[in-house]
Amino acid sequence: MELLRPSSLDDLNGGLMIHGGTEVVPLLRDGILKADTLVDIRGIVPRGVKGNRIGVGTTLAELEGSTAIPEALREACRLAASPQLRNMSSIGGNLLQSTRCWYWRLKYPCHLHGGDRCHAREGEHREHAIFANDYCASAHPSDVAAALLALDARLHTTKRELPIADLYRLPDEADRHVTTLEPGEVILELELPAVEASVYLKAMDRQRWAFPQVGVAAARVAGEVRLGLAGVAPIPWLLTGPEALDAATPLPRTAWKVDVARALVRRALDRL
Amino acid sequence: MPELSLTVNEHRYEVEAPIEMSLAHVLREVVGLTGTKIACNEGHCGACTVQVDGMPTLSCITLAHTVSGEITTIEGLRDHPLIDAFVRADAVQCGFCTPGQVVSAAALVAANPSPTIDDIRHTMAGNICRCGTYPRIEEAILHWRD
Amino acid sequence: MARLIRTEKEVEGRFEEVWLVVEEDPLTQWPDGPLSVVGRDALRQDALERVRGEARFTADIQLPGMLHTAVLRSPHAHARVKKIDLAPALALPGVHAALAPGDAKGLEGEPGYCGAAVAAVAADTFGQARRAVAAIAVEWEVLEAVLDPHEAVRREQFTMPSSTYERGDFAKALESADVVIESTYRTSVVLHNSMETHQSVCEWVGDTLNVYISTQYIWGVRSAVAAELGIPGDKVRVVCEYMGGGFGSKNDPGEYTFVAAELAKRTGRPVRCALTRREENTAAGNRNLTIQKLTVGARSDGTIIALGGEFINGVGWSGWSAMTDGPMQMLYACDNVRTVRHGAKINMPPMKAFRAPGFVEGTFGLECLIDELAVKLELDPLELRRKNYANANDDTPYSSKNLMECYDLARKHWDRRDEVRARSTGTWKHGVGMASQIWFGGGGPPSYAWTRVSSDGRVTVVTAMQDIGTGTRTAMAQIAAEELGVSLDRVTVVLGDSARGPYATLSAGSSTTPSVGPAVRAAAADAKRQIIEIAAQRYDVEEHVLDIKDDVLTSADGNVSTTLEQLLEILENSQILGKGGRGPNPAGMSVLTFGVQVVEVAVDVETGEVRVERVAAAHDVGRIINSLGARSQVEGGIIQGIGHTLFEQRLHDPETGRILTTSLDAYRMPTIADIPEIVCEFVDKPDAHLTNLGSKGLGEPPIVPLAAAVANAIRDATGADVHELPITREEMLRALEAAKKKERRGAPAAV
Ligand SMILES: Cc1cc2nc3c(=O)[nH]c(=O)nc-3n(C[C@H](O)[C@H](O)[C@H](O)COP(=O)(O)OP(=O)(O)OC[C@H]3O[C@@H](n4cnc5c(N)ncnc54)[C@H](O)[C@@H]3O)c2cc1C
Ligand code: SF4
Ligand code: FES
Ligand code: FES
Questions:
Q1: Parallel, antiparallel, or unpaired for β C609-620 and C448-453?
Q2: C88 prior amide bond cis, ω within 30
Q3: Residues spanned by the domain of A177
Q4: Are A110 and A26 found together in one domain?
Q5: How far apart are alpha carbons B38 and B40 in whole angstroms?
Q6: Does residue B94 line the site of ligand 4, with CB under 6 A?
Q7: Residue B128 CA: which ligand 3 atom is closest?
Q8: Which DSSP string corresponds to C341-380?
Q9: Ligand nearest to the CA of C246
Q10: Which of C193, C391, C534, C665 is most buried as measured by Cβ atoms within 10 A of its Cβ?
């Protein structure tokens, strides 16, 4: 294996990008990711908060202490992962983290790995999805993405500019990817609109250092209230309103998440 | 094998290690500093915590070749007042998690010499102690300068 | 004098009739209460090296030329190896040797669970070994697997015969009861997850095998390895100076030691075999699941007249069926008790002892049931417990029992109920619950210790025990210091090496201090006797007027007063040697530990979040040796208990039996952010019948009542009856919903 450290975006030419490596390193070790060339992109991806723009090389630790960003994002970063992981984790990498579905992590040949069934649906799925779970029932683990979704953030990449919602797609038979990122495309910056108010509430097993069971971000942006949820669907989930929870399609062992989501959504809206 | 130069506890080490080798592995088996422990080897427990430029970092999921900053391990903190504070507070049972706890705590008190209990709980939550020495760790950090 | 006795020996709640050679125990116990060194706070003797990262664990042992092992594990819950080809593995770079099923104990040709060891490879690096293992070609014949414990019971597939216990006439008593409550409780599989995984390094030196191993029982490893390899025990040297936690899971050598020993033999090199964290969570043992169908019948005044239970332990492919029924048989005075306990043999990883096995699970069921009874009878749960206080263990008297004193200590915490409940606001409901604790912990013979006193008046205690993190090194030093009348900093304890020092028992079953402690005291007393004999001759006084205190030897009349150094100078490099053994347990008595915990919780009734806010623990474990270390043990037990009460749960794929929660992001143990305020009190009264110390063990008692106390506090806060561990949000919301339904049907939900 070789490691490249390009000093400008122009030097990029294939290989697996690594920033903090919190996802890349364990997945490489498990053989879920494979690469002959690793590209350390820390030198070429912007880092830091400038006005309404956040370089995606900024770490979650830096963001949890930043007063320059909306509360929902700060809180999502503060409650994510563990302190050491937050020191290492870039916000860009966070958006691209893979599912925590145990079947997927243990390399079951499931839909998301290109196989022909979802093991979680018939198997152990108490931490899985309540929306859009018929093909893949995984629950998206990013607190940060849920917050950014509620905040209606836009992404700037080497190829395009897009609302964060468009970064994600539901996997299907034809395409098992959960993001729309193209090979070689690098995310560079996040852009936030003017946010009037925002909150992030997270239900987790422990008080700290756990993935969201249900995470609810609420934001008022240009007079409009937006709700972004973590842990409820294979991708960060935009909820049109509290009543949309009535349309949830929980699995037998995820019905409890609907109750939790209902309570958190109500509270988040109250606090706005 | 690719060469690599590391600064550990203010000493420079020139070593050879494959790209995929973790910092924890290099420290323990190449450099020979075994104070840093590996308990999960996948970023979940904090036993392998070292500081990189003062930041608590999980050395088991850090590729050694990607580290350019200064590394501080427990061996570099052996005279830190926290050591005595941990001993006094009985903040150690089996001791396998403890070096990692001290490394995290040292970064905490460097940034915030008078942490509150909430600060401690927030900042030390990435270091699992199966023996359950947490109340003692809290006490050790609260009184680290005494 | 050595004496041969036939006695019942208890380890982790398992009894065996054995012959034992025991030493007389002629020493009288010390007076009650804290002494000069014993009963006071003592800093850990080995704290500094552990905190500074200098302590060398098995994981840190690096021997020249050492090879690393990877193990091939069964992908099936039950299968037979029809054909196995090691050649592709052996052909890979760095590989030195490979083992097939049968080549080492524990490598199975017919694995009975997913994750069972099948084959192994030794290579220069672990990565090479892992790649080689992946290259081994196996042809499997998949066999039928039974994963469901109920199915195993239906088929009468057990790991050991079911056990039935009856006293009085349960059925008849139940008929005459004023109230009867039946409830089913379940507890989940939980994992020890010691921070240092199971591992050993084996090295042949001549015809001797050196085994460096993370273990709770160096002598058990020594005899098991010697027996397996067919070599004399003294040709196996077992070393464990520091170990990174065991909690009951490291009492035997495990397949990794046999594998390392065999590979070391074949390669002529030292070999490490260490479980990865994921293997640890699959194949290193667990606290098995239980299903408990419990019944209590009582008079309206609260007198319990009938207790019955059917207990299923989902033991796994092997292992024993722990005493889940123990608390029901032992905790209360009830004339009519009937229990049946099955140990279901299922195609899942085997159980291993885990801090008070059986009693943790059984106490959860029983103590929740008792509280449900209190609600029904509208009685105070503490009063109900006091009312049914047992004064004998069935018919056997206790060597000592101070549970009533524990209840007295708990009173002030219990009396906080109104204040705590009044804290409820909005969706957060607060409440208080309690549960009692009963468990073994008396230890037993044999165990031995030696002491060496040098000319500088310093003392070395030598005993081949192990300190698994519980602070036994320190406790042993305190005991020797107390007996010899020297200050604690003069005492060093050498342990952890079967070639250095006499036999000492395992560090499990809360047995270390009560087993080895008396031997250490006896060895110190033996040395002290000799010192006094020497002094009597030197100063020409009678022995009985001499004593040592604060490092000074004095005579009663004050005419002799000399420091130990001055007295012992004449020894130069020679030493005074003392030896001591553990005396027998009191015949015809039950040696047990007791306690009670009072827990305060907060429950968010909308999201099902449960927070344990305060735990007050009062335990009776006889004499306390190290008050500081004892508090740490209690805190540790409570914190581990919070784990299995609130979130720890091993999950498996129902189709394949494969463990899914193999990593610590999915198997979630408490962090520092989850801990409550912990208040810890001891009765601290020596057990007058038990050894020269009167001390019992404390490693396990604190974890026993926690879960039930939390569940009872939840009931107090919300009226919801929790029936399952862990109390996840799912279980909490279910219980709240059931309570609402009950309320709608007219029964009062909350007390
Ligand atoms: C144990 C654990 C617990 C966690 N808990 C939480 C949690 O509770 N909540 C939460 O929200 N998150 C959680 N995370 C996720 C964590 O925040 C992410 O792993 C981290 O942010 C990833 O950032 P990184 O820099 O380490 O990414 P890397 O591991 O370096 O990269 C991750 C992926 O993103 C790609 N990538 C990285 N940067 C870019 C870029 N700029 N452009 C294009 N592709 C890029 C990489 O190629 C790779 O595929 C957890 C992670 C771990 C390992
Ligand atoms: S939930 Fe998705 S990732 Fe998990 S098994 Fe099903 S398809 Fe695979
Ligand atoms: S060993 Fe690195 S986090 Fe566990
Ligand atoms: S002291 Fe044993 S794990 Fe922390």
A1: unpaired
A2: no
A3: 45-271
A4: no
A5: 6
A6: yes
A7: 4
A8: EEEEE-SSPPP---SSTTHHHHHHHHHHHHHHHHHHHT--
A9: 4
A10: C193
Give residue for tokens 């859009």. Answer: A132
Do B18 and B60 share a domain, yes or no? Answer: yes
Phi and psi at C687, nearest 5°, equal -75, 110
Is B26 in the same domain as B65? Answer: yes
Measured between CB atoms, which of A124, A205, A256 is closest to C653?
A124
Q: Which residue among A27, A97, A101, A117 is best mutated to probe the pocket of ligand 2, counting the most ligand atoms within 8 A of its Cβ?
A: A101
Give the closest of C606, C660, C661 to A263, CB-based. C606
Task: Report how far residue C333's alpha carbon sits from residue C307's, in angstroms, rounded to the nearest whole number.
Answer: 10
Largest CA distance in chain C: 88
Asked if A207 has any chain C CB less than 8 Å from its own CB, the reply is yes
Are the Cβ atoms of C637 and B132 closer than 8 angstroms?
Answer: yes
Give CA–CA dist C437/C634, Å, rounded: 13
3-class SS string, C441-473: CCCCCCCEEEEEECCCCCEEEECECCCCCCCHH
Same domain, A33 and A57: no
User: For the segment C467-491, what is each residue's pLDDT rounded down to a tens digit?
Assistant: 888 889 999 999 999 999 999 999 9
Supply φ then ψ for residue C633, to 5 degrees: -65, -45
Burial tier of B13 (Cβ tally within 10 Å: 0-12, 13-18, 19+): middle
Record the tokens describing residue C228, joined without a space.
Answer: 């397996």
Q: Is C665 in the pocket of ligand 1 (CB under 6 A)?
A: yes
Instruction: Report which bound ligand comes closest to the CA of C51.
Output: 4
Q: Are residues B95 and B46 in the same domain?
A: no
| Tokens (6 digits) for C641 | 């208990």
How high is the pLDDT of residue C747? 55
The mean pLDDT value for A72-80 works out to: 98
- The closest of C140, C114, C151 to C348, measured between CA atoms, is C114
Q: Read off the amino acid at residue C2.
A: A
Q: Which residues pair with C580 in a beta bridge?
A: C449
User: Based on the structure, what is the number of domains in chain A?
Assistant: 2
Are A196 and A96 part of one and the same domain? yes
Q: Is B123 in the pocket of ligand 4 (CB under 6 A)?
A: no
Q: Which residues contact C26 (CB under 8 A, 6 or more apart)?
A: none
ipTM of the complex: 0.98
Question: Could you list the residue range(s) of the whole structural domain that residue B30 is in?
Answer: 3-76
Q: pTM of this prediction?
A: 0.97
**Neighbouring-strand partners of residue A198:** A219
| Pairwise CA distance, residues C220 & C503, whole Å | 10
Q: Specify the residue for token string 């092997």.
A: C318
Integer Cα distance of C281 and C290 in angstroms: 19
pLDDT in tens, C238-285: 999 999 999 999 999 999 999 999 999 999 999 999 999 999 999 999
DSSP H/E element including C611: strand C609-620
Give the CATH number of the domain where residue B70 resides: 3.10.20.30
Confidence category of residue C1, pLDDT binned at 50, 70, 90: low
CA dist C242 and C230 (Å) reads 28
Q: What is the tally of structural domains in chain B? A: 2
User: In chain C, what are the domains?
Assistant: 2-57+443-581 (3.30.365.10), 61-144+195-245+250-283 (3.30.365.10), 146-194+288-353 (3.30.365.10), 391-441+588-751 (3.30.365.10)
What is the C-alpha separation between C584 and C5, in angstroms, rounded?
A: 9
What's the rounded Cα separation, in Å, for the pair C288 and C703?
16
Q: Are residues B68 and B12 in the same domain?
A: yes
Structure tokens at C685: 């009264």
Cis peptide before C446 (omega within 30 of 0): yes
Laid out side by side, the sheet with A224-230 consists of A195-203, A214-221, A224-230, A237-239
CB contact under 8 A, B37 and C59: yes
A169 burial level (CB within 10 Å; 0-12, 13-18, 19+) = middle
**Other Cβ atoms within 10 Å of C190 Cβ, number:** 24
Cα C419 from Cα C408, distance rounded (Å): 19
